[in-house]
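Hi Y.,

Following your request, here is the sequence exactly as I used it, all 386 residues.
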Amino acid sequence: MRKALGLLLGVALLSTACGGRSASPTSPSGSFDGSSSPSAATISGTVQGGGASALTAATNGAALTGVTVSVVGTSIGSSVDPAGRFTLVNVPPGSVQLRITGAGTDATVTLTTVQASQTIEVTLVVTGNTASVETELRRGAGESELEGRVESLPPTTPALTFVAAGRTVKTDASTQFFDGSLTRSFSDLRIGMRVHVKGQMSGDAFAAVKVEMQNSSPAVPVEVNGAIDTVAGSASSFQFKIGSRVIRGDSTTTFSGSGPSASGFTLLKEGVRVEVKGEQRDGFVFATRIHVEGNEDNHNNDNDDHGNDGQHDAGEVEMTGSLSALGGACPAISFAVGGVTFQTSAATRFDDVSCPALRNGDRVEVRGTRRSGGSIVDATRVKKDH
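Below is the corresponding structure, written out as C-alpha cells. Let me know if you'd prefer a different format.
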C-alpha cells in the first residue's frame, strides 16, 4: 500500500514539474516557474512613445502598447501590458541588449554591466526604430544607482534634497558632486540636468554618496495643448493653466495664430485654445512660444471641461504629439496620441504625410470626433507636425 501511495505521489510531482514549463505568453518569461534565480537579474519598467517629455517620462509619458520587450540572444521576453509595463526575469549578467518589437517598431537599447541579483527599473522611450533609456534605478548587488533628469530642487524640496527620475534624492555635506573631472556642488544642479547617482535606497528615498552631472545644457522642451483656464498677471509676467499644468511667460514669450485682431498677451482669455511650446522648470512650464488657435476652435463656455486637454465641445478632439501603438492597415489604421486612441478611414484627410508613411514616434496633429459613449476618436484630419 505504501509503495502504491509513493508511486502515485511521484507521478503527481512529475506532472506538476512538467506542467510548470508552460508559461503564459504575456507573463514575465525567463524561468519556468516565474521565479528569479539569485545568479541572474530582473529588469522591469515601462515603454513609452517618443512624445513623452524627457523630464516627466517616468510618470506622464504615453504608454507604447502592442510591443514585446526581449533580451537579445536569449528566449527571455515579455509583452507589455496596457500601461506599457513589462518584467523580465532570470536575465544573465553582463551587457544586456533589450529589443522592442511590434506595432511598427523594431528598436534596441543596451544596459551595460548588469550584475547578478540586481533589480533594475527602467523607462524606455521609443521613437520609430530608435530606443533610449530615459530613467534607470538599480538595486541589489551592493551599491544602488539612479539615473535620470532633475525634476525638482529647493525651495520646492527640502534643503540638500532633489527629485530625479521620480525619486527623492537626499544629499549631505559628505556627498560628492562631479561634472566630468570637475568638482561641483549641490548648487550646480539645474532642472532638466541629467544625473547619475550612487548610494543606497532608504525606503522610497535615495541617500546619495556621489552625484555625477552628465549634461551642461539641461533645457527640456515641452509642448502643451488645450483650453486656457485662470489667467493672471500682465504681459511682463503672466500665468495660466491648461488642465493641471501651470504655464508661465513674460515679455520674451512670442505669440502667433489666427485668433482675434488683438495681439500678444491680450489674446490670452479663459476658454481660448492654445498650443504652448516651452521649457519645463520647477513646478511649471515656461512658455517660449504660444500659438493661439482661430475663433472657430475657441469656445468660451463656462461648462467646458478645461481639465481634459485636447477636447472641444460636441465631442470634437484635437491632439498634437508623438504617435504610438500604430496598428491596422491603410486606410483603416489606429494609433494613440497623448493617451487618446484614434481610428482613421477612407474619409480621413492626411496633410504633409501619407497614411502608409506614418510611423511610431512621428509627431502629428490629429483632429476628430469622439464616438458616442466610447473612448475611440474617428480621425477627420492627420497632419505632420514639423
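DSSP finds two helices and 28 strands in the chain.

Thanks again,
Q.
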